[in-house]
Write a sequence for this structure.
């Protein structure tokens, strides 16, 4: 931070900033033990609330406060580097991003220009921990939107209280803090993305800093001596404990975020130049990183995202450490030649800042909206490249009133009651893997005069008594409703799921450079993480076989690990002729899925259960490889879901099972 005349400069806070930004950078890079490094943003929120409130109170006490002055200071601090980073990201996007990605970047740019990024990402993504977030250059701007929204409301509120109810300032802001935290805790189980992104549910972290500032300025003295040392040490321990022990499966940011926020508060209150922790945090290299922390936060994410776009997967080996190192000189240049000059009032007056900010944000908004509605400018690429990318798009389908995705129990019941035809119906139940085979299964069923009833919920495996951490109620509702309906309206059932992900909770690494990005997602039950997930799967599949007249289970398909259509499109784009075809290790598939393979072998021997073995369709014992494509035709539409081509292979085996053939015979007999 640049020292302000109203406040003494505290280098230890810049040191704390360094700790926070390094945790975020290493977390996004996937390096080191910082599984909870994303909580560095929460440390930033506390620091921001403390410093901004301290400045406002100092200006109010001295009679210098003005709203224009406050927002001018925010504009000088935030806009210049943000604008340049966004425009550079846009320029790189025009060169590197595929149409869908560029269109999404345009949406993100509109969020940056209007400071509504958090709402856009909450509404149009799978959340901060979604796989796709690693490919979004501007994903990190959600936190800036939270701050700016907070600081639109904070100055008028604190001004009104200071003028007319000064004694109520501290208790009121403390009450707001508790209210925001309680709301976040309430919403985390039902709507984790909202709790993560929305300002009113993040406000308690900023308000923690505000309450500290008010208390220290008007109500209390900072501790000294051993109390100061112990408090600061405890605070740092809480911060690092969160960084090391928390991970993205935690219901964040509610009560589980209290330790890191409390830790930041303790360091701010207790650490000073005379304390041991204060001296550590005032170490010049840390302070230096703290000074460039805003620019480092801004630039590291687009650097990582574009590295991943070029590499198609998660850069491994030395590449990611090199991208981390690249972020530091870029951040220093941004701080030295963009941030610092625009904070100098002698170089840029208030009117200049206002005009340049409005023009720059207007340009970003216009450019973002333009490329969004232009579909990401697909004309930048050849038809051959676009044909590969089309695999990633969902095939257009006619309206199917017998298919529901992410529906309520009442909607599913109404659908089944309308669609069910005794003797000529089959069910498809599962997660997104079931949805990916839906279209080809429906086509095959229609050819035979069969009705396909589909009940799917993303990230909800058809396993009783367990659920995805973000969707406990939805997963339970899918299974219980499907169970009741199949019992009432019996018909053969097809189950499909990404079994390995739910058995291990881990993203897939193919060992050849294709490493899936995304959170660890262990299956949960009422008692916490499931101890024996494969056992739960097996007992659930047996239970489904007792519910349905007959059961067809599609086993775990071989996963790719890299985004297959993107790899093929990049090869076409750069004229790379690849031989042999893109593939992954068959031995790795067998090792990773050993318990599941044994489970499906056991299940396949039981009466009433047919297991579809998907690996032999694309894998060869002779070569030891599993093909991800053949002749440029992708077998996957991303890194794990089957494309239409692969789905047709699977559906062919499904339709050939005795259970489905009996329905085919019934349907044929009903034909006139």
């Amino acid at each position: 931070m640049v020292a302000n005349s109203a406040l003494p400069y505290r280098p230890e806070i810049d040191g704390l900033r360094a700790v926070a930004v390094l945790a975020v950078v290493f977390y996004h890079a996937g390096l080191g033990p910082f599984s909870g490094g994303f909580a560095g943003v929460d440390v930033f929120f506390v620091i921001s609330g403390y410093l901004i409130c301290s400045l406002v109170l100092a200006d109010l006490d001295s009679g210098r406060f003005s709203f224009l002055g406050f927002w001018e200071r925010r504009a000088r601090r935030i806009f210049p580097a943000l604008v340049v980073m966004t425009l550079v990201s846009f320029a790189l996007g025009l060169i590197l991003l595929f149409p869908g990605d560029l269109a999404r970047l345009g949406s993100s740019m509109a969020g940056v220009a209007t400071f509504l990024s958090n709402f856009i990402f909450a509404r149009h993504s799978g959340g901060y921990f979604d796989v796709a977030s690693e490919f979004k250059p501007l994903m990190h701007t959600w936190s800036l939107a939270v701050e700016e929204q907070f600081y639109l409301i904070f100055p008028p509120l604190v001004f009104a209280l200071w003028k007319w109810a000064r004694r109520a300032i501290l208790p009121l802001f403390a009450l707001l803090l508790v209210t925001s935290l309680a709301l976040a805790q309430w919403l985390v189980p039902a709507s984790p993305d909202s709790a993560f992104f929305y300002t009113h549910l993040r406000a308690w972290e900023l308000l923690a800093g505000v309450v500290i500032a008010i208390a220290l300025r008007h109500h209390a003295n900072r501790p000294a001596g051993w109390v100061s040392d112990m408090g600061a040490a405890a605070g740092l321990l809480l911060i690092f404990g969160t960084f090391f022990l928390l991970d993205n499966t935690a219901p964040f940011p509610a009560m589980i975020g209290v330790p890191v926020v409390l830790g930041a508060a303790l360091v701010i209150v207790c650490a000073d130049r005379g304390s041991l922790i204060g001296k550590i945090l005032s170490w010049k290299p840390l302070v230096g990183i703290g000074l460039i922390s805003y620019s480092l936060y801004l630039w590291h994410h687009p650097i990582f995202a574009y590295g991943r776009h070029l590499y198609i997967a998660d850069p491994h080996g030395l590449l990611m450490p090199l991208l981390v190192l690249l972020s530091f000189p870029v951040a220093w240049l941004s701080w030295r030649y963009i941030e610092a000059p625009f904070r100098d009032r002698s170089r840029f007056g208030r009117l200049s800042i206002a005009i340049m900010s409005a023009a720059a944000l207007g340009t970003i908004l216009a450019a973002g909206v333009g490329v969004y509605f232009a579909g990401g400018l697909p004309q930048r690429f050849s038809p051959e490249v676009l044909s590969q990318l089309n695999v990633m798009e969902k095939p257009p389908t006619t309206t199917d009133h017998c298919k529901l995705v992410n529906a309520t129990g009442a909607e599913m019941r109404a659908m089944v009651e309308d669609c069910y035809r005794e003797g000529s119906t089959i069910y498809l139940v599962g997660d997104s893997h079931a949805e990916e085979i839906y279209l080809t299964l429906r086509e095959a069923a229609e050819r035979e005069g069969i009705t396909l009833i589909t009940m799917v919920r993303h990230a909800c495996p058809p396993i009783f008594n367990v659920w995805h951490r973000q969707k406990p109620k939805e997963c339970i509702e899918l299974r219980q409703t499907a169970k009741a309906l199949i019992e009432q309206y019996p018909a053969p059932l097809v189950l499909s799921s990404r079994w390995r992900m739910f058995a291990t909770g881990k993203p897939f690494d193919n060992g050849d450079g294709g490493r899936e990005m995304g959170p660890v997602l262990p299956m949960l039950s009422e008692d916490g993480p499931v101890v024996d997930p494969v056992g739960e799967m097996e007992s659930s599949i047996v239970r489904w076989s007792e519910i349905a007249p007959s059961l067809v289970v599609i086993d775990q398909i071989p996963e790719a690990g890299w985004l297959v259509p993107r790899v093929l499109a990049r090869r076409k784009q750069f004229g790379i002729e690849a031989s042999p075809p893109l593939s992954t290790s068959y031995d790795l598939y067998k090792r990773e899925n050993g318990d599941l393979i044994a489970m499906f072998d056991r299940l396949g021997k039981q009466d009433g259960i047919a297991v579809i073995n998907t690996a032999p369709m694309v894998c060869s014992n002779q070569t030891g490889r599993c093909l991800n494509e053949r002749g440029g035709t992708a077998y996957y539409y991303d890194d794990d879901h089957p494309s239409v081509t692969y789905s047709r292979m699977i559906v062919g085996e499904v339709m050939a099972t005795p259970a489905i053939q009996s329905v085919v015979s019934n349907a044929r007999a009903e034909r006139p």
Summary: DSSP finds 28 helices and 13 strands in the chain.
